């Protein structure tokens, strides 16, 4: 199930999918200055991360990812934010990402499926 609401002041897309037996709801919002992605299997927001592309002279892009709220000892969640900001910044380099992951299953397979679903349904 997917919906895109063009009347809401912020462009957004909401959809759900089944990942390893867990209903996973995803909301993607494209604000003027940020991208917000919420992925939940628990019906609420979970760990919230902020990711952005670092401005610099380096040939290879560098990214900053930090946990705003929630579990700080989940390297796979940081890797998920890193993968998403890497993709987003190739289209809109100046838009940071705020990512909320409220998951029952924190496996790498689940996180990879979330990344793939977000990229497939992107608003950038």
From TrEMBL:
Pfam (any one): PAC3
Protein name (Swiss-Prot/TrEMBL): Proteasome assembly chaperone 3
Organism from which the protein derives: Brassica rapa subsp. trilocularis
Gene3D superfamilies: 3.30.230.90
Gene of this entry: A02p006270.1_BraROA
Transmembrane feature ranges: none
Domain of life assignment: Eukaryota
InterPro entries recorded: Proteasome_assmbl_chp_3, Psm_Assembly_Chaperone
